[in-house]
From TrEMBL:
GO terms for biological process: cell adhesion involved in single-species biofilm formation; negative regulation of bacterial-type flagellum-dependent cell motility. Keywords: Membrane, Nucleotidyltransferase, Transferase, Transmembrane, Transmembrane helix. The keyword Transmembrane applies. Signal peptide: none annotated. Residues 163-287 form the GGDEF domain. The chain crosses the membrane at residues 12-33, 39-56, 63-80, 92-116. This is Putative diguanylate cyclase AdrA. Gene3D superfamilies: 3.30.70.270.
Amino acid sequence: MIASDKYIRKDILFFNLIMVFILAVIAIVLLYAPTMGTFNLFIPFACLLFNMIVSHNLGLQRGLMAGIVLTFAFGSYIIYETMIINRITEVNFAYIAWLFFFPLSSILAGQLSLVVSNYRRELENKKSLEQLVTIDASTGLYNSQGFFRKLEEEFVRAKRYKTCFSILLIKMSNFDELQVIYGEIDSIKILQSVAGKVELQTRFSDIKALISADILGIMLPETNEDGARIVIEKLHQALDRLTTEIRGTKKVIRIKPSIGISSIKESDTDVLEAYQRAKEELNYDRG
């Protein structure tokens, strides 16, 4: 339904354009080939196509109402032409057929719209379900499942198109201490602040994830190791101290981040090889 959509659905736009195109073709055929029928035939054809547009745009119920109105109007026209002014001397099959075509067209166009709407809804539900499975609720970043899925996709793409990407792992070395000092609820606020800083220091296209309680992962597409080290410097500066509101008071928190880096190599046969190198680098980086 158009009323529930924020923008015009593409299938509705295409359907309307097709109906208008068919109407134009019929008009041209009837105009330049009079032997195929009178131009008066254009009127019921136009009404039929308009009825289908209404049904597809506004739904089956409103389309059927429009079809009933058209059927009543056309039936009244036949009765008037036949019984009142005797312009139509014989009611042939074509006149009767139009009385069935209007409601039938409403059903077909309305059902088509319903099928498309159900298909779109299933896609949206599937997308929402995937987000529930792969998104961390507390930070809005990917969780470990979503992160490794994206890593695998990027690894396949990099191998196919000979591109590069880098992996950064951020370990909050003192996160256990922060949990003891501030408690579970406030430590989540600290984690959210860290995630916000990471978002600000990275690109929209970079994949950010909370892999575990104290480790965040970042995948940098189309970025070699030199480019990734620039990002590391920015992250160290942003995460070394951050201000977070805890229990109504702004506090400056020292995070002590360790950041491991790894770039994809041509010899890598699995993305976990690059991930493991980044994990090992965590032992050497102390900010």
